[in-house]
Amino acid sequence: MSDSAPGYALSDEHNDFRAMVADFAAAEIAPYAEQWDREHTFPLDAVKKMGAIGLFGLHAPEEYGGAGDFTSLCVAIEEIGRVDQSLGITLEAGVGLGINPIASFGTPAQKEEWLPNLIAGRALAGFGLTEPEAGSDAGATRTRADLVDGEWVVNGAKQFITNSGTDITSVVTVTARTGVREDGKPEISSLLLPTDSEGLTVEPPYRKLGWHASDTHPLTFTHVRVPEANLLGERGKGFAQFLAILDDGRVAIAALALGCIRACRDLAAAYALERTTFGVPIGRKQGVAFQIADLDVMAHTADLLVYSAAALRDRGGSPAEFRRAAAIAKLYCTEAAVTATRTATQVFGGYGFMEEYPVARFYRDAKVLEIGEGTSEVQRMVIARGLGLPVE
Length: 392
Hints:
Blueprint: H1 12-28, H2 33-39, H3 44-52, H4 70-83, H5 85-105, H6 108-119, E1 124-128, E2 144-148, E3 151-162, E4 169-180, E5 186-194, E6 200-202, E7 216-227, E8 231-232, H7 238-274, E9 276-277, E10 280-281, H8 286-314, H9 319-348, H10 358-366, H11 376-386
Parallel strand pairs: 1-4
Antiparallel strand pairs: 2-3, 3-7, 4-5, 5-8, 6-7, 9-10
Helix pairs in contact: 1-4, 4-5, 4-7, 5-6, 5-7, 7-8, 7-9, 7-10, 8-9, 9-10, 9-11
C-alpha cells in the first residue's frame, strides 16, 4: 500500500528516520509479533535492540545520550505501532512516563543516576499514578509517603503500571500523599522508588484483552524506605508534574493509534486485492472499496493531527494551545483506531475473527487507546474548557 497520499509535510531527515525505523520493525518485530502476542511474552531482546538504535533516547537530553525531537519520537512510535502495538506502547511509556518525568523534574544527581541507562534502553522505568480508587482524581490518592529521619516511608498500591515488572525495570516514579495543604486538600508529591527496594512488590501481571506483549502489573508498597533526596521535583507538585507531561503522552498515544489505523488500511487493501468472490477481487465491490477509502481518510486525518501537534511541541507553542491540540489528536486518533480495526475485521470477514490474522490482534489492542493517558471523556472535557466552557 502506498503512502503517497498527502499528509503533514515532514522534513527529509524525519522521512529518512521513518524509513530506518520501518526497516527495523520489519526485520526485528514483524516476524515474531504474533508469537509474542499468543504466548504473552515480553520481548526483552527486541526492546534492547530498540534501545541500541536510539529509540528510547528520542526527545531526551543530549548530555545523557539522547537525540532527536518530539516529532522523531512520534514517527518511531507510529512505525513500531504499525507492526506491533505492544512494543509501540512499550516505547511510548518508556520515554513519556519513564524518562520524561526524570528529565523534566529531576535534580542533576537524579538525572545522572537514572537517565543514561534508560536512554540507552538498558533499563526501563514506570510511572505509578493510578490506584484502585484514584487516577485523574488526585484527591483520592491513598498511597502515603511519610518523612521519617531523613527517609520517605511509602505505603500503598498502584495499578495498571506499564514497564513495571520487566527484568530491566530499574525505577518507578510514584505519586503519594506527603502531607496536607493549607486549603485542607492532600499534598501530592512524586518519589523515585528503585524496584529493588525492600517492601516494593511487583504483583502478578494482568490478564489483558490486548497488548499481550506489553508488561503491565499492579504494585504494592509496604514500608518502602528511600532517601529524602528521592523526591522528584518540588514537594507538593507531584500531580501538577504529571499533568505537565501528560500532553506529550497524549500526542504519543495518538501516534500509536495512527500506526494502528495505517496497518488496518494496508492489511484491508491488500486483502481486498487478493480475496475473490464470484470470480473477481472483493476490492471491486463498492461496499468493500468504500470501507477501505474511509480507512484512508482516517489515516490522512490522523496524520495531520499527530504531526501538527508534534510540530507545535517542537517549536515551543503556548501550553494552552498545545494542550488543546494534544487532546484533539488523542480523541480523534484513538476513536478512529477503534473504528478502523472494526472496519478491517469486517473486510476480512470470517478470517478477521481468526487469531492467525493481524487484524484480530489490532482489534483487541485498539480499545485501550481510548482509555490510557486520559479517556475520551477527559479529552472532550479538555477541549471544551479550551473553548471557555465551564465543564466539570
